[in-house]
Amino acid sequence: MAELTVITGAFGYTGRYIARRLLAMGKEVRTLTAHPGRHHPFAEAVSVFPLAFEDPAALVRSLRGATTLYNTYWIRFPLADVTFDTAVANTRVLIGAAREAGVRRIVHVSITRADAGSRLPYFRGKGVVEDAIVRSGLSYAILRPTVIFGAEDILINNLAWLLRRFPIFALPGSGEYRLQPVFVEDVAEIAVRVAGQGENVVLDVVGPETYTFRELVLLLAETVRSRARIIGVQPGLALFLSRLVGSLVRDVILTRDELEGLMASLLVSDRSPLGRTSLRLWLAENADRVGARYASELARRGVRHALLRCRL
Fold this sequence. Notes:
It is a single chain. The chain is 38% helix and 18% strand. The protein is of the alpha/beta class. The protein folds into two domains: 4-147 and 182-205, NAD(P)-binding Rossmann-like Domain (Rossmann fold, 3-Layer(aba) Sandwich); 155-178 and 209-269 and 277-309. Strand 1 (4-8), helix 1 (14-24) and strand 2 (28-33) form a beta-alpha-beta unit. The longest helix is centred in the first third of the chain and has 18 residues, at 84-101. Mean pLDDT is 93; it is low at 305-312.
């Protein structure tokens, strides 16, 4: 029988690429998802179970027999009754279920500079979850990517979308803060590789190129042949403008946490890059489609017309 692996969110972004690799290796793949009825490209190749945080016994049954749990579950921003504290509590339930089910190893997708003591709720929640995994008794590999780019990417795609459609692009502050994007295929390859290793590891998963935010915006503008005027504005104004555009597309384009984390250069690493794919080359190869359509976070989470309920 094929080895059973479980992924939270195999129909999402990073989880989808991990699932493809596992299937290509002949693994049996099961996903735990909050949207079991969502269309996906795997047909019958991936078995589907609910991500039932409210029913730990059901989670245990869903995880029973799996050697590895790949966890991509998290939230980008609070929505309705789901806060970062909720996401932490949910992940604790998942970790406990994995331990009870006899899962051998957990591969957890976190974020660079995750810190339980951070003043930013997103990074603090990620740090709290990392600590819970380390103390769980499970064998673990914690991956800390930065901005993950690829065909279904939201951030870089939507920056390009803005540059394609608006005559002015508001750059928060100086734009000299840095980020180190990593390709989604590289993240998936590393996740699958470390699952087969025995030691407990915490790895920064970053790409080979570091950009200032201004350099990234200029690169995207060149890629999509944008004529937008790029101007520096106060960060508060940039956040306000992002909310204004967000109200037009019925989505959340940028959160305060994301802006502050970006401007604090939390999306870079001082370790050797594990990702190999150049963003510059990838953009050149995908110039016609990057930013061609807006990518909605709320639609990805299966939410409609809920923008006013977001607590940002």
